[in-house]
Amino acid sequence: MGRNPLKKNYLTQRPTSAPPLLSYAEDKELDVVVQKLIYVESAIRKLTKEMKKYMGALTNLDRADQRLSTNLINCGLAQNNDECRRIVEEYYSVASQVGKNVQEVSSLCHKTFIEPLKKFRNEFITIAAAIAKREDLVTTWKYVYNRVKKLQEKKDRTANHIAKLERERRAEEVAAKELKTIHAQLLTELPTFLGKRLEYINPSIHAVIMIQLNYYGHATQLYTQLMPIQYSSELTSSTIVPEEEHQRVINTELNRLRALTIVKDH
After folding, report:
1. SUPFAM superfamilies, alphabetically (predicted)?
2. Does residue 20 have a cis peptide bond before it, meaning omega lies within 30 degrees of 0?
3. Phi, psi at residue 84, to the nearest 5°?
4. Cβ(251)–Cβ(231) under 8 Å?
């Protein structure tokens, strides 16, 4: 069964310390950066998941709206009244237009948010591989380091023992050099990557805000056209509607709705 990348982080392993080759400060510095990166990847994974939920919810809401407007058209209740039929037909038309916008919103959110964040998250595969390589080098260095210590503790002074000790020392030096090199490289590159995360993520967030602004603004404009002229003009007469006026309009509409036969107590 294939692995679902949304269910687990690529970067999960924290770096192992390697004293006395690396100081406590050197080990701690890398560990802190890696922990921050683990958190960032988790956040990216959650953002991607929530965006997919948002797109699904928006699509489901649109489907419900389409079914409602279609049922109103087909139920026949509005056919005997010209004004009611006109309103229902206009509502159906607006719902259809909003539905097309929903499809566009989903497509744009996928292109401007999900895909860029997916590419960004793929960088953590490379980071995880680099951390894993460091772990292998730590294991190798610790092994040869301990072998050197054991050989040094022996009192054997034969030529064979001295030659063996020298070979292990050279192996330890090579392993130590490789480990210190990749450790230094990670301490240089990972903080840089971490520092640039917002430069990469912010455009996607701004894009989503603009997409929503356009979608909800257009939907509001379309549905406002369905409102009675008096009510519509009251809402759009000024950019900022005073709170008292806003409440008055709402109460007027609520009272009108309460007066309908279908909401009266029987």
Report:
1. BAR/IMD domain-like
2. yes
3. -65, -40
4. no
7-35: per-residue pLDDT in tens? 688 999 999 999 999 999 999 999 999 99
CA trace torsion 220, 221, 225, 230 (10° rounding): 80
**Distance set, CA 258 to CA 77, 228, 253, 262 (Å):** 21, 17, 9, 8
> How many other C-beta atoms lie within 10 A of the C-beta of residue 22?
21
What is the chain's length? 266
Q: Which long-range contacts (CB under 8 A, 24 or more apart) does 131-136 make?
A: 131/11, 131/13, 131/15, 131/34, 131/186, 132/13, 133/182, 134/15, 134/179, 134/182, 134/183, 134/186, 135/13, 135/15, 135/16
Tens of pLDDT, residues 179-222: 999 999 999 999 999 999 888 898 899 899 999 988 998 888 88
φ and ψ at residue 81, rounded to 5 degrees: -130, 120
Domains by residue range for the chain, with CATH: 24-238 (1.20.1270.60)
Q: Which residues of 43-81 are buried (b: 16+ CB within 10 A; e: fewer)?
A: ebbebbeebbebbeebeeebeebbeebeebbeeeebeee
pTM over 0.90: no
